[in-house]
Amino acid sequence: MPARTNTRVLLAERPVNRRVQESDFRLEAAAMPEPGDGEVLLRTLWLSLDPYMRGRMSAARSYAKPVEIGEVMTGETVSEVVASRAPSLKPGDTVLARGGWQEYAALPAGEVERLEPQGMPLSYFLDVLGMPGQTAYCALLGVGQPKAGETVLISAASGAVGQVAGQIAKIKGCHVIGTAGAADKIAYVKETLGFDAAIDYKGKERDTLGAELAELAPKGIDVFFDNVGGVLHDAALANLALHGRVVIVGGISLYDHLETPDSGIRWNRQLLVKRARMEGFLVWDWRHQTQEFRRDVSQWLREGKIRYREDVAEGIAAAPRAFIGMLAGRNRGKQLVRVATPA
Ligand SMILES: NC(=O)c1ccc[n+]([C@@H]2O[C@H](COP(=O)([O-])OP(=O)(O)OC[C@H]3O[C@@H](n4cnc5c(N)ncnc54)[C@H](OP(=O)(O)O)[C@@H]3O)[C@@H](O)[C@H]2O)c1
Q: What does each C-alpha distance from 151 to 43, 55, 106, 194, 208 come to in angstroms?
């Protein structure tokens, strides 16, 4: 009988100042990894595809080291323990891990978290109850600090993070505006998620976007949850309310050009005149709030106050195309790959 293999996706080439293409990845059938002492062998069930991975494909300096050429693409997974050489985990346990874009991974038991799903779908631990959901919760409540009656603007509103951020702002009694890049996404955030208003930003210049925002937020934007950067950022900054808060969560419009500095308007005077605050956010700095976040968001999910949409690609080989599609906005909700079903 042939030995079982581990299909995995490696970084083949760095996309520099251009869009990612499928040839930037290489699919490989590798030998099954062997768990060492204190390690577990994991079978990937779900793989999360996230915009930050575009940054890891670049050698530009960031908060984390890049994936090297020939290395397995990095990524969070929900995985099943198939063999254990650690007392804390046994075969059949389900864990949250950094398994990467591959079918199997051998990892130290101390680096994975055993999951107790408590009736929640396993995939949720990669999205609404995982890193994107925690980003929404902590960036909005911890940094943006919206108060009831305030106006909150969320860019990339229909995506993994944006969906949650907007609905939490609604729970907190805010007037919520979203931006997204397709008519059906606009309908989704307004009709299904309950946003008060939404703008399709595609093909629009800063001044047009600025004028639309001014109409929707006549008293200004109190909290701007910025996932996108670029012209949307400029349009929002022109419409800040007094004491506005700008949370820099992401800049996906810039991710294909990380090697060159972003140039745009200098907003110093606007920040001064509005006595506004702008702060960068990284979810890993907020690990101390993971339990609180999971408790609150689980509760809101159970009460039907938060709804969540996932976009599922099938099989590890589909990961590159799904990732490229997500960067281009073809995802409808959080982009995941179903790599295998539980044994
Ligand atoms: N700081 C942190 O700790 C942290 C953690 C997680 C995520 N993030 C950031 O949060 C942002 C959203 O991530 P996500 O996981 O929720 O992804 P997502 O929204 O599910 O997917 C990415 C979306 O970005 C939008 N997009 C792509 N190119 C764009 C462009 N040029 N201009 C405007 N929008 C564009 C597309 O939606 P449209 O159709 O609307 O264009 C696409 O669907 C990303 O910037 C990500 O890096 C930050």
A: 44, 31, 47, 14, 20
| Residue 316: other Cβ atoms inside 10 A | 21
Q: Measured between alpha carbons, how far is 141 from 195 in angstroms, rounded to an integer? A: 17
C-alpha neighbours within 13 Å on the C-beta side of residue 139 = 31
Q: How far is the CA of 251 from the centre of ligand 1 (A)?
A: 7
Output the ligand 1 site: residues, CB below 6 A.
Answer: 50-52, 132, 135, 156, 158-162, 180-182, 185, 227-228, 249-253, 281-283, 326-327, 329, 331, 334
pLDDT in tens, 24-62: 999 999 999 999 999 999 999 999 999 999 999 999 888
Atom of ligand 1 nearest to the CA of 335: 20
Q: Are 316 and 73 in contact (CB under 8 A)?
A: no
Which residues contact residue 313 at a Cβ distance below 8 angstroms, ignoring those fewer than 6 apart?
A: 49, 319, 321, 322, 335, 336, 337, 338
Q: Convert the pLDDT of each residue in 305-315 to its tens digit.
A: 999 999 999 99
Give the C-alpha separation, 330 to 308, whole Å. Answer: 17
